[in-house]
What we know:
Layout: H1 2-36, H2 40-60, H3 63-67, H4 69-83
Helix pairs in contact: 1-4, 2-4
Amino acid sequence: MSSTINELSLNELVSQIDEIKAENSALGILLTMVIHQLSNEQKSRVKLRAYEYNSLMNKNGDSEAEKGSAVRLETLSKILDAVI
């Protein structure tokens, strides 16, 4: 019985992770499209502010914000490098 419950919980978690990944991917695509349409000056400001915001989250955030630092930075770089 415990094994079945663990399998159900694991399957539910995997499903939720897959949904989050899909949402993340869609948001990345939308952001890339929107940023791509900005002027070069606006793109530069977006890039600067995104990195500033990430830095502030690292300094002033809780431990959860700190844990996500590398992932946020990687995602920011991937999106911004695609359009800037």
